[in-house]
Design brief:
With 344 residues, the chain is mainly alpha-helical. It has three domains: 12-204, no CATH class; 221-252, no CATH class; 256-301, no CATH class. It contains eight helices and eight strands. The strands form four sheets. The protein has a two-stranded antiparallel sheet. The longest helix is centred in the N-terminal third of the chain and has 40 residues, at 12-51. The chain is elongated, with a radius of gyration of 48 Å. The N and C termini lie far apart (204 Å).
Length: 344
Amino acid sequence: MGRPVTALPPPPATSLNTCQNTVKTASKTYADNDLNAVANCLNAVAGKVIKANAPLTTPVPVICVLQFRNIYDTRATGKSLGEKLTAAIDKKCAPGMLNVTHGVPDVLGPGAALSEPIEAENLDTWCTHFGGDGSIDTLHEWSDCVAASHACAAQQAIVTQYPRALEWLAEVRTAMLALTPPISDPNKISDAVAGLDAVVAAIDGPDDDGQPSVQCGGIVSTGTAVASSCLTGTTFSNGTAGGVAGTMPNNGAVTLTPSASDQVIAAGYHNGSGKCVGDTDLVSGNIKNGVNLFGVNGSVIQASGNAATRRPATCSRRRPSPTPAARGRARWRTTAPSRSPQAQ
């Protein structure tokens, strides 16, 4: 008998290609199972509500506990859908595993030995919308982003398939909480409820209004706003980050009173109801000629002297005093004798 032939490990490029293909197939399996877990619960609810028009009694809550435990399981035994996805990706992508000959840099991008890496680092910013920290530094950060993005896609499908999903999940949640967990698995009910709550939060969306508003990955951040442009107490997103806190002071209504010096207008937001105080006495008749107050030219001309003791001027016409000659003529006229007619 000949010696058994030992298969040689694949070249790094082949190994990396297998990794890429595994991520595709494992992601699809995860997405399908995640969708089915929620759908199986809702199908059971629909059978009671629509078909039988009956309360959500057993076995509906039991079915939903089993399904949502697939989504969230604190036992860390590798049974949850997320754990299965991570294990499948690790098996074909993580260095040290059988027949994995590529390196982590070949998956992430920076420092890759291969000329054509996967470059998962391209998802740095995108994965922040799925709970990432803004930098894909490990293989598990990539697989976590893969899981979150596919779960979000499954939730979109649930919304369109089950328009009453939020209503029914709220009803079955109450029924699930009424169950008693087994002694051997005390977290069974609480884990399932946590999985249900995560699905409800994703379907309801950030507005939390009880209506479907799934935003897979949220809204892609764009814009040029900065913290100083947005009010304190608010948050915003721009082209580089999301959830940034504003720092602009909210001054509300500010009232300025004119004085002999400039009044500083504080930087920040003003709500439009502020004002600069006016005065009805600010008219030209109250301002000295040649003086300008806040754009009003004065017209008052000030008289000289003491206004308190000055007598008002009068205008009268006086007869001039007679000259000496005139006075003499006046006396002669009064003493000269009159002529009689006989003397003529």
